[in-house]
Amino acid sequence: MEDIEDLLAGSGSATPPGFRLPLAAAVGVGVGVGSKRNKLSSSPSPAIPGTQTIYIKTFGCSHNQSDSEYMAGQLSAFGYSLSDNPDQADLWLINTCTVKSPSQSAMDTIITKGKSSNKPLVVAGCVPQGSRYLKELEGISIVGVQQIDRVVEIVEETLKGHEVRLLTRKTLPALDLPKVRKNKFVEILPINVGCLGACTYCKTKHARGHLGSYTIDSLVGRVKSVISDGVKEIWLSSEDTGAYGRDIGVNLPTLLKALVEELPADASTMLRIGMTNPPYILEHLKEIAEILRHPCVYSFLHVPVQSGSDTVLTAMNREYTVSEFRTVVDTLTELVPEMQIATDIICGFPGETDEDFVQTVDLVKDYKFPQVHISQFYPRPGTPAARMKKVPSNVVKRRSRELTNVFESFTPYSGMEGKVERIWITDIASDGIHLVGHTKGYIQVLVLAPDHMLGASAMAKITSVGRWSVFGEVIETIDHVSDSKALNKLVPDRDLHSLCVNPAKPGGFSEDPESCACGSDICCSIDKSDASRGNAVQQNQNNRNLVGWILRKREHLHKKVESELASGSVKKHERKMKKWDFVDKVLLGGISISIFTIIALVAALAFRVIWSQ
């Protein structure tokens, strides 16, 4: 079936809209988050393109987040203002996820709200690409996943009152489009779109299509560019990283070797390999392990298993066995020091028996994964699994709760107290007090440090541990003085590995948001965490001076710290009270001086009044 292309509705004219591309001079790589992004401006006239304010809401995986950043960059380059406040925006751009029913329900809710507020709407992402005829999309402009480079045209025409639909799959969007990153230190780099699988429950394949890989040269060029922009973490993202290059005659290890050669030798910029399904890395395990040992690559990998039962895996059409998954985990754990592996589980897949579920629980217990994304099965319209006999919902919920309880009983960070780790600091915690860093194994470390530490690397002593992250104290900042490229030879053993990092300890937790049920990397409603991050940034800006830093340190020592991960899950960490330490004395002295000053002023004022009478 052919896609709808350039369809104009409700314009009263048979002439297609006169689409206009952005001015070439206005388009550049690395458009920053400047005053135009954060400042709301009223629209002088709807007849003048590029003067309005756009609100962008993103659901889904890191690939979707990258698409939103590219669309934001193009709109900003054309002159549009970007706002996190939907009420003050002139148009809403909604980037959607089709993996789970809750994500699509959230899309329906925001569309309804936009319509009731008379906001022009543009819907992008996997939902319109995979389900273009949804009733909820009637009368709304939509843009496909491979048409994001035309977002300016679509927004311009929608603001004129036209309905535009661009869904035809074409060549991959260029990687050097303007981009506005949610986090200026993190580049989400899509290396391919689509996948080679045919999972019976997955709707994403309907939207993203068959595998399409970017060339190695284009990806190397993008890495060079973002490093020069000051990026400190590069996330390789796709629907299946392990399948990279099979459509163009190359493979993932070849790409990774080319990329690490471009990374600074001082490990000031780190590479994180995205989600990969087991079938496509089995033949490259030793090469992948060699790359994961590299000082500039996080020793972390997301490998979805989905079930511990071969019977269920066959029904899912996952194309591997539990034994093959174990081979992946065992090999990487053996060959990569301090290796951390995250996985996904779907509870209640059609046909899953109690015995199948027990096998899944046993698998999780065997490996005690530090991070498991647990999902209940959601039937997606148009997929083979939607026609299969369902497990009763009460059974699905019970199994999900049971597996969650098993997972949460693990203590992956025990024994880390007192250890010194190298961390890379790239974000502000949602409490507005801590900065967020990660170890070589991508364990999240929350530290108290000034804002200028963002984007830096440091040695940190782990002071306490929790279930979901650890707390640390910065003891030394690492100066990055080398501009040379990373070592051409990958790291064969522990000795060279230790040049750039102190060994991380067993256990770790990625700050990735919730993973897609299909295994796609980092699936969640990203804007929820971004909104929290925005509030954290604003609060942190008020604490830049010395007094603010002292108050932040006291908060860490004397209050319960509520720290929300990037996934939006909120976990509490309690810090024991200390008696009359240095910070206490400083604050007590300051308070005392303030009280005495106020009393003196009041007394002087009263004396003056009495004297005047």
From TrEMBL:
Residues 181-414 form the Radical SAM core domain. Its cofactor is [4Fe-4S] cluster. SMART domains: Elp3. Its EC number is 2.8.4.5. It catalyses: N(6)-L-threonylcarbamoyladenosine(37) in tRNA + (sulfur carrier)-SH + AH2 + 2 S-adenosyl-L-methionine = 2-methylsulfanyl-N(6)-L-threonylcarbamoyladenosine(37) in tRNA + (sulfur carrier)-H + 5'-deoxyadenosine + L-methionine + A + S-adenosyl-L-homocysteine + 2 H(+). It comes from the Eukaryota. It is an enzyme of class 2 (transferase). InterPro entries: Elp3/MiaA/NifB-like_rSAM, Methylthiotransferase, Methylthiotransferase_CS, Methylthiotransferase_N, Methylthiotransferase_N_sf, MiaB-like_arc_euk, rSAM, rSAM_horseshoe. Residues 52-160 form the MTTase N-terminal domain. GO terms for molecular function: 4 iron, 4 sulfur cluster binding; metal ion binding; tRNA (N(6)-L-threonylcarbamoyladenosine(37)-C(2))-methylthiotransferase activity. The chain crosses the membrane at residues 586-611. PROSITE patterns: MTTASE_N, MTTASE_RADICAL, RADICAL_SAM, TRAM. SUPFAM superfamilies: Radical SAM enzymes. Keywords: 4Fe-4S, Iron, Iron-sulfur, Membrane, Metal-binding, S-adenosyl-L-methionine, Transferase, Transmembrane, Transmembrane helix, tRNA processing. It holds the Pfam family Radical_SAM. Catalyzes the methylthiolation of N6-threonylcarbamoyladenosine (t(6)A), leading to the formation of 2-methylthio-N6-threonylcarbamoyladenosine (ms(2)t(6)A) at position 37 in tRNAs that read codons beginning with adenine. Belongs to the methylthiotransferase family. CDKAL1 subfamily. This is Threonylcarbamoyladenosine tRNA methylthiotransferase. The lineage of its organism: Eukaryota, Viridiplantae, Streptophyta, Embryophyta, Tracheophyta.
